[in-house]
UniProtKB/TrEMBL annotation:
The keyword Transcription does not apply. The keyword Lyase applies. Pathway: Pyrimidine metabolism; UMP biosynthesis via de novo pathway; UMP from orotate: step 2/2. One of its GO terms (biological process) is 'de novo' pyrimidine nucleobase biosynthetic process. Belongs to the OMP decarboxylase family. Type 1 subfamily. Its EC number is 4.1.1.23. Substrate binds at residues 14, 36, 63-72, 124, 185, 194, 214-215. Catalyzes the decarboxylation of orotidine 5'-monophosphate (OMP) to uridine 5'-monophosphate (UMP). Residues 8-230 form the Orotidine 5'-phosphate decarboxylase domain. It catalyses: orotidine 5'-phosphate + H(+) = UMP + CO2. It comes from Sneathiella litorea. This is Orotidine 5'-phosphate decarboxylase. It comes from the Bacteria. The active site is at 63 (for ompdecase activity), 65 (proton donor), 65 (for ompdecase activity), 68 (for ompdecase activity).
Length: 236
């Protein structure tokens, strides 16, 4: 299946339970756009587990957030492209220009079906005070814009940002740059550790390319119904 704005929701399946992840993947694939698997699932079940959940056809976002020296990140991107074949994968944009360029070049070796490289800007669980605590004095939005510009200049296909920065990023980076957006909370749902949030409809209206939604779907009593309600709300 191709990634299109019509298949805009990637469900984050964050669990160590292989069978639960397979069941969620099966029930959600026909409803939302794809699935996102990250550190918790990958560390438990590796590439084979990921293939068991995503199969050959479900769009897959591999969220391992590589952050290392350029040579090591390039190796990680190549290994992911070869053994997992995700549609999109993440690196930390704060790894710097050479690291971003190494990731983009490594992905380009895989031609048309290559994974899109997305730079994580400022984690959606961080606010201005958290940034200050790690030595970044500028507000979150300024830091997101700075890192997105760096990512775009060095060959990344897009960034991970919060819904609060979508409009500013669209103006800065143009219509084709992918904005993949976690920190999505339907009205009334628990924010948990997410600090920079908006609703699914607000994020799509602002110009997101794809939404990443985990607990509001996977933690619902009926995850398929929760996903349908979100997708239906966006379509309406
Ligand atoms: O800045 C970021 C980068 C990645 N994530 C990931 O998205 C999902 C969000 O899950 P929720 O349960 O909807 O909060 C999760 O897998 C994170 O690792 C993010 O939230 N923020």
């Amino acid at each position: 299946m191709r990634l299109t704005p019509q298949n805009a929701v990637f469900t984050a399946i964050d669990t160590t339970d292989l069978n639960a992840a397979i069941a969620l993947g099966k029930s959600l694939a026909p409803i939302s756009g794809g699935i996102k698997l990250g550190k918790e699932f990958f560390t438990s079940h590796g590439p084979q587990g990921i293939m068991a959940v995503a199969g050959e056809t479900t769009p897959l976002f591999l969220d391992l957030k590589f952050h290392d020296i350029p040579n090591t990140v390039a190796g990680g991107v190549r290994a992911a492209a070869k053994f997992i074949k995700p549609n999109m994968l993440t690196i930390h944009a704060s790894g710097g220009p050479a690291m971003i360029r190494a990731a983009a070049d490594a992905s380009a070796e895989f031609g048309e079906g290559r994974p899109l490289i997305l730079g994580v800007t400022v984690l959606t669980s961080m606010d201005d005070a958290d940034l200050k605590a790690v030595g970044v004095e500028s507000p979150a939005e300024d830091q997101v814009l700075r890192l997105a510009e760096l990512a775009q200049k060095n060959g990344a296909d897009g960034v991970i940002c919060s819904p609060r920065e979508i409009q500013a990023l669209r103006n800065l980076c143009g219509p084709d740059f992918k904005l993949v957006v976690p920190g999505i909370r339907p009205l009334g749902s628990d924010h948990g550790d997410q600090k920079r949030v908006k609703t699914p409809v607000e994020a799509m209206t602002d110009g997101a390319s794809y939404l990443v939604i985990g607990r509001p779907i996977t933690g619902a009593p009926d995850p398929a119904a929760a996903a349908s309600a979100i997708v239906g709300g966006i379509a309406a």
